[in-house]
Amino acid sequence: MIDAYSLLRPCLFSLDAEQAHHVTLNNLDRAERLGFLRFIIPPIPQNPQKLCGLTFPNPVGLAAGLDKDGRHIDALARLGFGFLEIGTVTPRAQPGNPKPRMFRITPAQALINRMGFNNDGVLPCVGRIRQSHFWQNGGIIGLNIGKNASTPIEQAADDYLSAMAAVYEVASYITINISSPNTQHLRTLQDETPLRELLMRLSEARKSLADQFGFKRPLFLKIAPDLLPAEVVLIANLLLEYDIDAVIASNTTTLRDAVQGLEHGEEMGGLSGSPLRLRSNQLIVALQAELQHRIPIIGVGGIMSGADAKEKIVAGAQLIQLYTGLIYRGPTLIKECAEALALPP
Question: What is the pLDDT of residue 4?
Answer without folding.
Answer: 80
